[in-house]
Amino acid sequence: MNTGRVLVASCGAKRRNELRSLLELEGYEVIEAARSEQAIAEVSLGRHHLLLLDSGLDANEPYELCRVIRAKSEVGIIILNQDATGQGRIDALNSGADDCVAESCAIPELLARVRALLRRIFLTRDERYQIFLHDRAIDLKAHKIKGPIGRVENLTPKEFLVLECLVAQPNKPLAHRNLARAVWQRDGRGEVEYLRIVIKQLRRKLEPDPARPRYILTEHSFGYRFQMHARESQPILC
Hints:
Arc Repressor Mutant, subunit A; alpha/beta
């Protein structure tokens, strides 16, 4: 089975369902976006490895949306386009896409291109799975926090997803609703209280003093921010 999180962006519900079913059968975790702003919000969370961008999103050309997303994220992007051979392919690549595939292409070809792009992404990302802080380290591959004197804290699935979203965009405030939506994969409105519980648990495992957090900071009336201090901002290659 394959691994990886794929965001499928298309205004057509039938098209999204087709692509989702196809990718989930291959073992990928799939999230859907029906509008441009939703796709941008999802990508900004830093959770997705690959974006499948349908040319029929909001009735706009996908290239401008691709430029906006590329300025915010290094997510892999495959544009599904009616013209994937001539100027359309050139425009897609110039806008920041990694690949451009004809909307009518055979399923095996599309899956092969998804696998190829994800292989390239994981070759560069999977090496950078430890973030070293002042006196502790976050091991994103093992879902653990390694503290002083050999202390190890295991992360629950929800704790890991929240922490992964925060460290993906250090020093940037993330809204309550966006974080909750990334973890619970719904609109995020009803899960803010659960999010606060998860943040409290994370602080207990990560912070030297949970009552005076150094890393997971509260942005009052907005959300949370992962604070990277001097000499802590670069992941260590392992």
